[in-house]
Structures are given as C-alpha cells and as structure tokens.
Specification:
alpha+beta, binds Palmitoyl-CoA, Thiol Ester Dehydrase, Chain A, 4 helices
C-alpha cells in the first residue's frame, strides 16, 4: 500500500526536461499540461492558441458542459482556471517556464457554456523574473467582454518541480517525526 511519503518520493517520471519549455501540443497548437496529456486535449476547453507578430496570444475557447454553474453559464472557477491557463501560456509561447504567483479576475458577465469564446493575453511589463500579464475573454461573434484577468508569473528553471518533491518529502518526514 502506498503512503503519502511514498508518493512524495516517487516523482512522475513521464516528464522530461524539454517538456517544460516545449510541451506536447494538440493539432490546434494548445500546449498540454500534466493530466491533459493522457486525453490529448485541454480539459478546460482551450481549442486553439497562437502568438501573433505583436506578441499577443489568442485562444479559441469553449466552456465544457461539465463546467456549468448556474443555468447554461460557467462556474466562476472555470473562468478563473481558463484565464490562468491562457495567460500562463504567454511565457510558454516565448519558450519560458513560469508559474502563477498572483491572479486577479473580474467577472464582467455570465459566461455561456458551449459557445465559442475568445481569450486574448498580452505582457504588460517584465521586471526581473516577473512577467505581468493581462487578458480578457470575449463572446463570439461580437466582442462583448465577459471577464478580465491580470497577474504575475514568475520564471522558473526546470528544477522547480524536483525541488518541490524534495520539499514535500521533508514536510512528510517532519510530520511523521513530530507525530
Ligand atoms: C506550470 C508549468 C508546467 C510546465 C509544463 C507545460 C505545461 C503546459 C502548459 C501549462 C501552462 C499552465 C499555466 C498555468 C500556470 C499555473 O497555474 S502554475 C500553478 C500555480 N502556481 C504555483 O504552483 C506557484 C506556487 N508558488 C511558488 O512556487 C512560489 O511561491 C513562487 C511563485 C515560485 C515564488 O517562489 P519564491 O521562493 O518566493 O521565489 P523567489 O526566488 O523568492 O522570488 C522569485 C521572484 O518572484 C517574486 N514573487 C514571489 N512571489 C510573488 C508574488 N506572490 N507576487 C509577486 N511576485 C512574487 C519575487 O519578488 C521575485 O522577483 P524577482 O526579484 O526575481 O524579480
């Protein structure tokens, strides 16, 4: 039987170093995170992504029916998650590994499920290892804004997740020794 300590000492070896800067992508160009790789699709409903010449990232998105909150509208957690995902792809589209340090979301209008939506994301500024990124989600057709987001992404080296595994193992060890 495995324990949380065993899990902490058994990192997921499916990941290779290159996955962090150039991860597997769908036919629509969408970079896939851990659990979505098995499904070969973004479970949040990001269908296409591209970076234009001006550095703005564009995403075709649709809220899956499983993410319904109120009648025919998205759960707010989905809206926040997909904005985290899309804004977080901007460093990745620039071959940079980063993690979200802060995220702020404005829910402007209810987001309909199963409708084509667009997310646009851009870099406001970069300071040291911090990328300040903003974005918005709009309804298609038309351009009504449904949600806005801004946040800070912090660049990491590829040792980030191994350091986390070691930290987790230390937490488990100190919890075990202190009873
Ligand atoms: C995820 C990647 C998968 C890769 C494979 C590809 C998969 C395909 C695509 C997936 C795309 C996913 C897109 C979604 C991205 C997530 O959702 S990532 C998951 C959620 N976020 C996290 O798990 C992050 C958890 N937090 C942390 O790991 C640490 O707190 C942080 C953010 C790395 C900072 O750690 P730290 O030890 O404080 O770092 P430290 O070196 O002291 O500070 C570094 C810098 O960050 C700044 N900083 C630290 N905290 C903050 C803060 N809260 N606010 C502002 N600045 C801060 C410091 O001021 C410092 O700035 P500089 O002086 O260097 O300019």
């Amino acid at each position: 039987m495995s324990t949380s300590g065993d899990r902490a000492r058994t990192p997921n070896r499916r990941w290779a170093g290159s996955d962090f800067q150039d991860p597997p992508r769908t036919a629509g160009g969408v970079a896939l995170c851990g659990a979505c790789r098995a499904a070969s699709a973004c479970r949040l409903g990001v269908e296409r992504e591209r970076l234009d010449e001006a550095g703005t990232a564009w995403f075709d998105v649709s809220c899956p029916h499983e993410q319904e909150g109120g009648p025919n509208v998205a759960h707010g957690g989905w809206t926040a998650s997909v904005l985290d995902e899309c804004l977080g792809h901007v460093p990745l589209l620039n071959s940079t590994l980063s993690v979200t340090a802060e995220l702020s979301v404005s829910f402007v209008k209810p987001v309909p499920v199963g409708r084509p939506l667009r997310v646009r994301a851009w870099v406001e500024k970069r300071e040291g290892s911090r990328w300040y990124i903003s974005g918005e989600m709009t309804l298609l057709p038309g351009r009504a804004v449904l949600a806005r987001a801004s946040g800070i992404w912090v660049t990491r080296d590829t040792g980030h997740f191994d350091r986390h595994e070691r930290w987790l193992a230390e937490q488990d060890a100190s919890a075990t020794s202190s009873g």
